[in-house]
Amino acid sequence: MNQLYQAMHRIYDAQNELSAATHLTSKLLKEYEKQHFPLGGDDEVMSSTLQQFSKVIDELSSCHAVLSTQLADAMMFPITQFKERDLKEILTLKEVFQIASNDHDAAINRYSRLSKKRENDKVKYEVTEDVYTSRKKQHQTMMHYFCALNTLQYKKKIALLEPLLGYMQAQISFFKMGSENLNEQLEEFLANIGTSVQNVRREMDSDVETMQQTIEDLEVASDPLYVPDPDPTKFPVNRNLTRKAGYLNARNKTGLVSSTWDRQFYFTQGGNLMSQARGDVAGGLAMDIDNCSVMAVDCEDRRYCFQITSFDGKKSSILQAESKKDHEEWICTINNISKQIYLSENPEETAARVNQSALEAVTPSPSFQQRHESLRPAGQSRLPTARTSSSGSLGSESTNLAALSLDSLVAPDTPIQFDIISPVCEDLPGQAKTSGQGGRRTNPFGESGGSTKSETEDSILHQLFIVRFLGSMEVKSDDHPDVVYETMRQILAARAIHNIFRMTESHLLVTCDCLKLIDPQTQVTRLTFPLPCVVLYATHQENKRLFGFVLRTSGGRSESNLSSVCYIFESNNEGEKICDSVGLAKQIALHAELDLEEQSRLIAASSRTNQASSEGQFVVLSSSQSEESDLGEEGKKRESEA
After folding, report:
1. DSSP alpha helices (H): ranges in 343-472?
2. Is the pLDDT of residue 164 over 80?
3. What is the pLDDT of residues 419-432, one digit of tens each?
4. For residue 241, which of 337, 127, 357, 363 has the smallest C-alpha distance?
5. Distances from the Cα of 188 to the Cαs of 183, 185, 355, in angstroms?
6. pTM, full prediction
7. DSSP letter string over 292-340?
């Protein structure tokens, strides 16, 4: 009976596990349409097919759940009752009968030891009474025990047949429910799916053959490129490049004479030469190539070497190219970038145009936004830290916050810039040109580099804050504080995923004309943001150390090429103070502009009044001259005095 119980219990456990597994499979199929795969687009046919499978499997899961309940009631309950109630009752009666038999034997032994010579009526009476009681008790327990044994023979048959009957009835009911659910329409659906699977398999085989042929063609076409130093007649040197990327060997001195060479990936970005080690997720600044000098050098142990020297001569690097072609192209590219930026009137704009985008540094994986979508801070109806550029006051309640889409704020695959790169900030239509957009270096050939007077010397407001640059990225919209919050979320998540902990510390100077990032050691201005271009600024809703602002710039001379870049910084719990300072600066600038307009209006009105007065005086003098003939000499004298 115990072995049969264990076997039936295994059937019951297996049925429960099957029901749970079927339900989990249906749940996973329902969630397929919520998954985002980086190598495949959204397949509506696949999603709808899996949804249909999910419905059918969900119905089967319900049938399995009903079967589990029926097995518990009709199979497990009878055999459990027999095992735990009837068998335990027999064992208990057996123990009681054994005790009664032992008591009866003890009483008979005492009765048998009564003395024949010295009879004691009292002792004899007690022993006789004891024998009577124990014999009666033994007889009663014996009859109950034997009756229970006879009854057990019937209960044993019932305990065997009832679970088997319940099991078979439950299975029959399960198969009936399955036949009702799996009808002819489902069979047609399964036949169509089988045909689709065969078609997909044939398409896969065809694509594999095509890809294999493409690989063979590419191998044949790329065979000349496998040579370390390709033939210059087949692959001529391009001397007009302004962008270049590839692997170079950099020399690192380890002593007075000895040195080591490290192979890294180098690429130009605006007026900077960036380097990135193998395995790193982001590149770092290797050297500023604005107004630098580059020349080929001879190394004792290496070929194709060239040296780059910074504009001030304090920093130099010796790099080795892989081939003669790369060697000449690297030298020409760096020379072209250096001359193009140096001879330009706006070096920051030219540096960005050379690279086509000053933000093109590190691009996170396309699936990053989907995996961390839940990290975005929940939208709130009141944004106490949001400020607009027009008034600098607290932001009002957002009525259409729920309707905003993340794609309308920041594109999913927008590059993230982790290094400080000078932005393209041309003058917007209707704005005066600012002269403080990043100090231009001194021309060593004696040419004039523009006025050296700082535009912030006469500013009323001067407030300095310690900040650390976290990153920047281009945004689609600049009219809602959610742009700043979403940029903060994406930059912080990207830093956490890519293990980027390095931050550039600077001094942020807030004036009535612009915002400046100043190097705390050299006091050199790294970046300058004109105040009219700062159109939005806000602190984080929960972490007041984080703040950011949106800079509206133009890529050309027309308003149609306007773009917006959001810069994110970390401060020492002064995010709200910085935003208040920026708001105050914009208010002062607004009042100053209004005062200038009022003065201009008063000057114009005064000039019109003076002109009218001069015309009236001319009329009076003319009338007086007409009467001079009637006046005497004294009258003429008084008239002239008047």
Report:
1. 347-354, 368-371
2. yes
3. 776 544 444 433 43
4. 337
5. 9, 5, 58
6. 0.38
7. -EEEEE--SS-SSEEEEE-TTSS-EEEEE-SSHHHHHHHHHHHHHHHHH
